[in-house]
């Protein structure tokens, strides 16, 4: 394969028109990953997690939507901002047993709480009215252990 430098950079309204930016009318999901560090322990559990300890959690957020006039379904910057304001600000470098509602701070419990927080923010910002919706969350407690939550599982 031969590599070459483009002779000309594409110019808006010369080489491509505004009506060409949106290629389709399909729902598309975008995914962004984040990490946060937190400590916790489990109640009524006989195992290592009974003791106070910490994790570097990884949260994988998938949100879908329909592309807008420039071809963007969900802006990665919006996902980052919402995550920082709604999740990171409450959980990063915190003692989860103190900042989460009364629950055992398992990945299975935490992921539902995280879903509820993100879903409320999508509603509050009017993004759900635009067709945006959470599709899936994955919360890693360790690099090989995680909980998954899908949109269809949250429907009552």
TrEMBL record:
GO MF, one annotated term: 6-carboxytetrahydropterin synthase activity
Primary enzyme class: lyase
Keywords assigned: Lyase, Metal-binding, Zinc
Catalytic activity: 7,8-dihydroneopterin 3'-triphosphate + H2O = 6-carboxy-5,6,7,8-tetrahydropterin + triphosphate + acetaldehyde + 2 H(+)
One Pfam family it belongs to: PTPS
UniProt pathway annotation: Purine metabolism; 7-cyano-7-deazaguanine biosynthesis
EC number: 4.1.2.50
Cofactors required: Zn(2+)
Family from the record: Belongs to the PTPS family. QueD subfamily.
Name the record gives this protein: 6-carboxy-5,6,7,8-tetrahydropterin synthase
């Amino acid at each position: 394969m031969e590599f070459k430098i483009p002779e000309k950079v594409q110019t808006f309204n010369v080489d491509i028109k505004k009506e060409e930016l949106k290629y389709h009318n399909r729902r598309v999901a975008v995914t962004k990953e984040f990490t946060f560090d937190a400590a916790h322990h489990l109640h009524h559990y006989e195992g290592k997690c009974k003791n106070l300890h910490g994790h570097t959690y990884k949260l994988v957020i998938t949100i879908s939507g329909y592309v807008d006039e420039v071809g963007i379904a969900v802006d990665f910057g919006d996902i980052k901002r919402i995550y920082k304001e709604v999740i990171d600000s409450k959980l990063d470098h915190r003692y989860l047993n103190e900042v989460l509602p009364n629950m055992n701070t398992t990945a299975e419990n935490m992921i539902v709480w995280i879903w509820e927080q993100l879903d409320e923010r999508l509603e509050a910002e009017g993004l759900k009215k635009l067709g945006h919706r959470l599709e899936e969350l994955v919360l890693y407690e360790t690099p090989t252990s995680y909980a998954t939550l899908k949109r269809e599982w949250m429907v009552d």
